[in-house]
Structure formats: C-alpha cells, structure tokens
Amino acid sequence: MTRLLVTGGAGFIGSNFVHHVIENTDHHVTVLDKLTYAGNRASLDRLPDDRFTFVQGDICNAELVDGLFSTVDAVVHYAAESHNDNSLDNPRPFLDTNIVGTYTLLEAARHHGTRYHHISTDEVYGDLELDDPQRFTEHTPYNPSSPYSSTKAGSDLLVRAWVRSFGVQATISNCSNNYGPYQHVEKFIPRQITNVIRGIRPKLYGAGLNVRDWIHADDHSSAVLTILERGRIGETYLIGADGEKDNKTVVELILRLMGQEPDAYDHVNDRAGHDLRYAIDSSKLRDELGWMPRFQDFEAGLAATIDWYQANEDWWAPAKDATEAFYAKKGQ
Ligand code: NAD
Ligand code: DAU
C-alpha cells in the first residue's frame, strides 16, 4: 500500500482525485488543506477511516509540511488559489499559495526524497486564436496572461528547477478545464447551473465566443494516477479530452438540459485580459502511458453534473449568495 499526501484535497479536483484513489486503489490518503473559501470538508464525507486522514493546515507552513512528508511515500499537489476573476481582484494570495506554497513543498520533497507530482494548468501557455490549427503541446512556450496563470507558470518553473538542480523526483501535468461534481459555484458551469436552479439568468462574459477544452474531473484523476505510477521523472504531460466548446454553446446546452429556452441568458461585462481559446494535444500521455478519457460524451457528463447540483443544494447553497454579490459588484 502507498501512502499519498494530497494537498488541496478539499477543493474541486483534489476531492474528485481522493474519491478516485479510494475507489480504484488500496492507497492510504492524507489530505492537507487550509479550507479557504474554496475548500469544503463535506466533499470528503463518508470516506473510510482506515484509508483516509484529514489535516487542516497551510502548505506554506514548512514545519507542518515537513512532518507530513516524513509519513508518506508520494505527494500530489493540487492546493492553489485557482480562480482567474479573484486573481484580478486581489493577486496577493495567489503569490503566497501558488509560489511560496509550492516552494515549501519542493523543499520538503528535496529533504525527504519524496516522489512529487505537480498539478498545473493549460493556462500557462496563454491562449490560441479561434482558427489556429495548432493545439498546446509539452513544447509550447509559456505565455501566461493573468495573475493566476502567471503564478501557476512560476510554480511549474520552480518544479523544473528543483528537478534539475536538486534531483527532486517530480512530474508535472497541465490539464484543461474540468467539470463535474464538487466544483465551487464561482466557476462557469456550476455558476450557470445553480443560477438556473435559483431562477437567475445565466451570465455570459462578452460575446461568449471564448473556447475552453472541457474534461471530466474523473478523467483528470485517472490521468494523474497514471502519471504518478508510470510517468517519467522530470517530464511534463498535458491532459485533455478533445472537448473544445465555446462558452455560448455550453450555456445554451445547460439551458436546454434544464428545460429552459436556450436564449434565456444575459451578456455581462467581459473579464479583463480574457484568454480566447485553450486546446490540448494529449498525444504524449496517450501514446507513452496508454491513458484514455472515459467521459467522451460531454452532453451526458454535463447532464450528470446538473443532476448532482440539483441533488446537492446543501453542499453549494452556503457559497452562492456571496459569490453572486462579488460578481454583481463587477457587473458580471
Ligand atoms: P479549488 O479552488 O476548487 O481548490 C483549491 C483547494 O486548495 C481548496 O480546497 C483550498 O482550501 C486549498 N488551498 C488553497 N490555499 C491553500 C493553502 N495555502 N494551503 C492548503 N490548502 C490550500 O481548485 P481546483 O479547481 O480544484 O484546482 C486544483 C488544482 O488544479 C489547482 O492547482 C489548479 O491550478 C489546477 N487546475 C485546475 C483546473 C480546473 O479546471 N479547475 C484545470 C487544470 C488545473
Ligand atoms: O484551463 C484550466 C483552468 O480552467 C484552470 O487552471 C482554472 O483553475 C479554472 O478556474 C479554469 O479557468 P477559466 O478561467 O477558464 O474558468 P472559469 O470557470 O472561470 O471560466 C470559464 C469560461 O467561462 C471563461 O472563458 C470565462 C467564462 N465565464 C465565466 C464565468 C464565471 C462566463 O462567461 N461567465 C461566468 O459567469
């Protein structure tokens, strides 16, 4: 049995990963999570006591991190400030958690010789034109646009330096936009689903032509587990499921699946510096490690996600009003 430390395991993708690991392996999981506004302990309810431990704490706390590294075989680092709109409002926590937090974990990995997997984003590559035939690959130059994506890019570069300079046993993955259960209502898809449930019209930034490359969070989890088990040390793997869709199409699909008129949404102020298009070429991961996404039908995955939000109002309702108040101040 492997003992895993998962940082940010009470967040959206981290909690999906913890459920995936508990269901598909015999590993023991310790979650280290600060429980910021984005963390929710309820996302980890009902996990078996003999397979799972929860520690509330900050990844910037070197003493705490060092102690936890001495008890595990491998670390998967999800903890981050993750939302672009928040990073435009107040960048400072992004520097603390995404840069200093990653540095703190890398130093512990160096001292303990711990296997370390770093979770990152396709946003480090900047954006593509709508008609560009190229997609992002592991060789695309870094060109981040926002305070969020620039701190993620910085954290990736720290990992590369710690591999080369100190021989840290690390891999990196850069994934596209995730959807699925346990995602905070500040993010695009849950915001629109919960708006419709509340009788609020969905809000589309600008013209809604921006393209995101959607992948189900469970497919992200299976890819990360594959890289942790079989990835080559020092390598970067891009994770994507060929799910490009523009935002307008996604909003119209949500409305249709929820029994509303497909044009029952509002155009609102655009995001400053809004990236136009992301698209991932995940050939390296598929060809080298044999990974394949399981959720190939976006409409079916989205319908299941809508069902989850309809059935779990207790989980998301406490964050909804404050989130909408934040957006209302920005005309979004
Ligand atoms: P999230 O905001 O839902 O969750 C982040 C979690 O990290 C929360 O539980 C929060 O409490 C915790 N956290 C924040 N600061 C912390 C700190 N200083 N110490 C300990 N815990 C802290 O984020 P998410 O969407 O699940 O993203 C997780 C990771 O995946 C991030 O690294 C993000 O960059 C990356 N990623 C996200 C997506 C996506 O579509 N959401 C896509 C690709 C990569
Ligand atoms: O690409 C991976 C990234 O995906 C991750 O690194 C980030 O952590 C994650 O938040 C996500 O970033 P985006 O900025 O793409 O996601 P968000 O859900 O904020 O927005 C998705 C798209 O929808 C984007 O083009 C902005 C738009 N949008 C968003 C909201 C919240 C709207 O049109 N209306 C909205 O209300």
TrEMBL record:
The record's annotation in SUPFAM superfamilies points to:
NAD(P)-binding Rossmann-fold domains (SSF51735)
Instruction: List the catalytic activities from the record.
Output: dTDP-alpha-D-glucose = dTDP-4-dehydro-6-deoxy-alpha-D-glucose + H2O
Q: Superkingdom, according to UniProt?
A: Bacteria
Q: Which EC main class describes this enzyme?
A: lyase
What cofactor is needed? NAD(+)
Q: What is its EC number?
A: 4.2.1.46
Record bears the keyword NAD: yes
Protein name (database record): dTDP-glucose 4,6-dehydratase
Q: Which species does the entry assign this protein to?
A: Microbacterium horticulturae
